[in-house]
Amino acid sequence: MVRFIFAFIAAFALPLSAVAQVQQGAPNAGFKPAFKNQTRAPEIRDGTRLQVQQIASGLNHPWGIAVLPGGGYLVTERRGRLQHVSASGKVTRVRGAPRVAAKGQGGLLDVALADDFATSRRVFLTYSKPLSGRTQATAAGVATLSADASRLSNFRDIFVHTPGVNAGIHFGSRIVIKGNAAFITVGDRNQLKMPQNLGTTVGKVVRVAIDGRVPGSNPFTQREGARPEIWSYGHRNPQGAALHPRTGELWTLEHGPKGGDELNLISPGVNYGWPVVSYGIDYNGSSVGRGISRSGGMAEPRYYWDPVIAPGDMTFYNGRMFQGWNGDVVAASLNPGGIVRLKLRGDRVTGEARYLRKLGRVRDVDVDRDGALLVITDDPNGGLFRVTPAGG
Ligand SMILES: [Ca+2]
Ligand SMILES: [Ca+2]
Fold first, then answer.
1. What torsion do the CA atoms of 310, 313, 318, 324 make, to the nearest 10 degrees?
2. How far is the CA of 65 from the centre of ligand 2 (A)?
3. Which of 33, 223, 262, 380 allows an S-S link to 301, with CB 3.0 to 4.6 Å?
4. How many angstroms separate the alpha carbon of residue 40 from the centre of ligand 2?
5. Which-ligand-closest: CA of 270?
6. From the CA of 173, which ligand is nearest?
7. Ligand 2 geometric centre to CA of 124 (Å)
8. Element at 59 (helix H, strand E)
9. E strand or H helix that includes residue 384
10. Cα 285 to ligand 1 centre (Å)
């Protein structure tokens, strides 16, 4: 009888511990986390199963989605086209987008609507802007969308990173609108000295007013030699950003090197550490800088992945369709692909789950008007998909 009980416990206990974390590869860097559940949090096991419906195909490396309040979507294609996708999936080009430097990871990148879009029809785009001397910069601009969604008019920049850099990678480039302010994430453009240098807007999160002026309340407006647009610094390649629906806080997702993708809670004036600290290692296997993951005065990521998820954009689920998901982070993954869900308690992660890896490289994720999830896939024949709970 005793032997039977032990056998029963062993049989029961082993699978439970084996599924405690999301299945993933061995760590690349293997740093010790700074606090419990900073990485490899327990797997969320609430039985959610998902189904996928394709709305549109033939999108060329789509990068950003915006959900139109009257139905339909705007989708950027990296090569430089803005597309309107109707609710039934008809794709038509929107004229009037800016000329882009479609090189490497650069091109037409994010799209967002003004909070008062229903009346103003204002649309924001981010892109890699061609500058003189073969350099480019992450830029953001605003334009007005025609009533029939066929045309943007009066496009003008509200932010251009400085100085221009000749590099085809790490543009960052999410834009998040909060009333009269725009937060724009700017990657390091492969310039390792810039993220810690307050004299440049490369490797930063910036905040500008939606008309392009710099708010006097930004953290470095009084600091001599600092760019006044800077909101936070020490970023590598933040390609995800969203406002928490309850607290209004800005959260970002950032590509690390090999290992060390980060979820950050952004506070003004704070240093997020790149390239001084990282939970990853260089692609060639050597350490980043001095090979340390933390240092005084540099903010810890709220969560990190090692091996990486290669994050695209993120959203906070806020809807009625997915029971138990409200307030959860939903992140796009380019590699291994699909979507990643994180459950939060305050600013700590308590659980992780992954879904839809079969979709491959997901660049953006959003919530549709009825609470369905929307994803776009990064592919020459990319798709726009609606994701809903399976069964019921
Ligand atoms: Ca960091
Ligand atoms: Ca998005």
1. -10
2. 5
3. 262
4. 25
5. 1
6. 2
7. 12
8. strand 50-59
9. strand 382-389
10. 19
Q: How many domains does the chain have?
A: 1
Annotated active-site residue 170? The verdict is: yes
Q: Return the pLDDT at 2.
A: 43
- Tell me, what's the pLDDT at 392? 54
Pairing of strands 230-233, 261-266: unpaired
CATH number of the CATH domain containing 63: 2.120.10.30
Q: Give 216's contacts (C-beta < 8 A, 6+ positions apart).
A: none
Cα separation, 156 vs 338, whole angstroms: 34
Whether 4 is covered by a domain: the verdict is no
Q: What pLDDT digit, counting tens, does each position of 5-43 carry?
A: 444 443 444 444 444 889 999 999 999 999 999 999 999
Give one DSSP letter per residue of 110-129, joined into a string: EEEE-TTHHHH-EEEEEEEE
Residue holding tokens 């969560």? 303
Q: From the CA of 273, how far away is ligand 1's center (Å)?
A: 5
Considering every ligand atom shown, identify the ligand nearest to the alpha carbon of residue 300 and give its number.
1
Residues in contact with 153: Cβ distance below 8 Å, sequence separation at least 6, in sequence order: 96, 143, 144, 146
The parent domain of residue 64 ranges over 29-389
State residue 17's pLDDT score.
41
Catalytic site residue from 170, 235, 244, 255: 170
Give 321 Cα–ligand 2 centroid separation in angstroms.
Answer: 19
Residue spans of the chain under pLDDT 50: 1-19
Q: In which residue are the tokens 């511990």 written?
A: 17
The whole-angstrom separation of Cα 346 and Cα 227 is 31
User: Residues with beta carbon < 5 A to ion ligand 1?
Assistant: 272-273
Residue 24 domain flag: no
pLDDT reported for residue 249:
98
Q: Tokens representing 151? A: 């045309």
Does residue 19 lie within any of the structural domains? no
- Structure tokens belonging to residue 156: 């003008």
Q: Which ligand is nearest to the CA of 110?
A: 2
Task: Flag whether 319 is in a domain.
Answer: yes
Q: Which two tokens stand for residue 214?
A: 């710099």
Q: How far is the C-alpha of 335 from the C-alpha of 361, rounded, in Å?
A: 6
Rounded to the nearest angstrom, the gap between the alpha carbon of residue 228 and the centroid of all alpha carbons in its chain is 24
Query: If you ran DSSP here, which 8-state letter would residue 358 be given?
Result: G
- Token pair of 116 as six digits: 């008062």
Q: In what side-by-side order are the strands of the sheet with 303-305?
A: 237-243, 250-255, 261-266, 303-305
Buried b (16+ CB within 10 A) or exposed e, 59-71: bebbbbbbebeee
Note the pTM of the prediction, 2 decimals.
0.94
